[in-house]
Specification:
Layout: H1 2-27, H2 44-51, E1 57-60, H3 64-80, E2 86-90, H4 93-102, E3 107-111, H5 117-127, E4 131-135, H6 141-150, E5 154-159, H7 163-171, H8 173-181, E6 185-188, H9 191-200, E7 206-208, H10 227-231, E8 237-244, H11 248-262, E9 266-272, H12 278-288, E10 292-294, E11 308-310, H13 317-323, E12 326-329, H14 343-347, E13 352-355, H15 362-370, E14 375-377, H16 383-392, H17 394-410, H18 414-426
Parallel strand pairs: 1-2, 1-4, 2-3, 4-5, 5-6, 6-7, 8-9, 8-12, 9-11, 10-11, 12-13, 13-14
Helix pairs in contact: 3-4, 7-9, 11-12
């Protein structure tokens, strides 16, 4: 009955989200030529190509962040079980492009279908997976029901659930409890996530495997993003604000203007979480009076070196982080407290400044705080003095980054634990 109600309301929800879907499709970059796979439509050539992957493990990641972790897990999986085959699906065009660029051998890439029953059935008919593995928070009723109907194990990996989400799920427990029980296993990041999932669905099969984001390794050689093209020659100090959200770019820019009076060599790189916001951020920079360049519009050296680079592209954040002297992580300032993943700058050994709450990433934040490996601010007013202190002290920055990298190294191993659990489900021991 609940699934019937869901499918009855799904077209209305889809119509509500359709304008946003079309806006992102038009304004975001990435791979778009096979986007009709989102509607369960595959060309004859694609059907033939994917037939070779029948019996593969279907891994679904939403966008760029989850795709990076999924690719890392697939590479580790193939090291241990080279005979396995994989289908990797994404929702966003940017995630799709990244997956296609970096997918290892034995891996095919598709768009994940929208959760309409017919679209889901057509996709399962094409790929015929041996298992469905979903990353983090993607819980789609028709996909899970289709797995159950076909006898295909469904597993959630690297799962997390914030306090806010848990409260909402508990209020709608009549819907989410049976849905979570459709997973053969739910593998979560922390003990707190375990308790939250169990509070929603006490009978769900939940285990703690750790956070696979700790297992990421930066590429051996990151491409040089060419900051000298924008900032001109010289020994610049690079302040990078990563994964920023509305309000944060303007706030950080104001602080940068103040800091530049003290540190004339300081240059700013802004990387918004959503690249399609580049236009509105550019308008703000115009009003600020700073000189700037948009990465999405030019990779050539401007006529005159600029103060700010607006990196409104996708898939390049690690390149820019590798050149930063100090990293501010977004969604933690100017009224935001959900936070973003601190692991990427930490694994690069970069000093990090962030808000002090990070509701969605508390475990990572606490692991860094316990080792004095991150600088936090409890209010926006504290950002300027915190940045000033770090910019004045190169040794403090180096030590902060060194401790952050050490924390990441100590928390590795989640990928192997997850793979072990998946293999138990795929290849159960013979009955005695």
């Amino acid at each position: 009955m609940l699934r019937f109600i869901y499918n009855l309301l799904l077209p209305l929800g889809f119509l509500f989200f359709l304008p946003g879907l079309l806006y992102k499709l038009r304004n975001r970059g990435g791979w778009k030529s096979t986007f009709m796979e989102r509607f369960g439509r595959f060309s004859p050539e694609r059907r033939s190509e994917l037939a070779a992957f029948h019996g593969a493990i279907w891994i679904h990641a939403v966008s760029v962040g989850e795709t990076v972790v999924a690719l890392s897990m697939i590479r580790r999986y193939l090291e241990r079980f080279p005979e396995r085959k994989f289908i990797l699906s994404t929702t966003t065009t940017t995630g799709q492009e990244l997956a296609r660029e970096r997918c290892p051998a034995n891996t095919a890439v598709i768009f994940c279908p929208i959760d309409f029953p017919g679209m889901v059935r057509r996709t399962f008919d094409v790929i015929r997976p041996a298992m469905m593995v979903i990353f983090e928070t993607e819980i789609w009723p028709n996909m899970l029901s289709e797995c159950r109907a076909r006898g295909i194990p469904a597993v959630l990996v690297n799962g997390r659930m914030s306090d806010h989400s848990a409260a909402g799920y508990r209020r709608a427990r009549i819907f989410f409890d049976p849905l979570l029980r459709k997973f053969n296993r739910i593998m979560v990041q922390t003990d707190a996530d375990f308790k939250r999932y169990k509070s929603v669905s006490p009978e769900a099969d939940v285990v703690v495997c750790g956070n696979m984001k700790f297992d990421q390794n930066p590429p051996e050689q990151l491409e040089d993003p060419g900051l000298e093209n924008y900032f001109g020659p010289g020994d610049h100090l690079i302040l990078l604000a990563a994964s920023t959200h509305p309000g944060e770019e303007e706030f950080v820019t104001r602080k940068y203007i103040e800091l530049k009076k003290v540190f004339p060599r300081l240059r700013l790189v802004l990387i918004p979480r959503h690249a399609e916001r580049g236009g509105e951020i550019a308008a703000m920079l115009e009003r600020s009076g700073l000189t700037f360049c948009r990465r999405s519009q030019s990779r050539e050296a401007p006529a005159v070196p600029v103060d700010v680079l607006l990196a409104d592209t996708t898939g390049e954040m690690l390149k820019f982080m590798s050149r930063a002297d100090l990293v501010i992580m977004g969604k933690s300032l100017a009224g935001h407290d959900e936070g973003h993943n601190l692991i990427e700058p930490a694994m690069l050994g970069k000093p990090i400044v962030t808000g002090h709450v990070l509701r969605n990433f508390r475990f990572i934040l606490n692991a860094l705080l316990e080792n004095d490996a991150v600088a936090t601010v409890t209010s926006d007013a504290e950002l300027y003095p915190q940045l000033e202190k770090l910019l004045k002290d190169p040794e403090l920055r180096r030590e902060l980054g060194k401790r952050a990298a050490a924390v990441i190294a100590r928390h590795r191993g989640a990928s192997d634990r997850t793979i072990d659990e998946l293999e138990k489900i795929l290849s159960p021991p013979p009955a005695s």
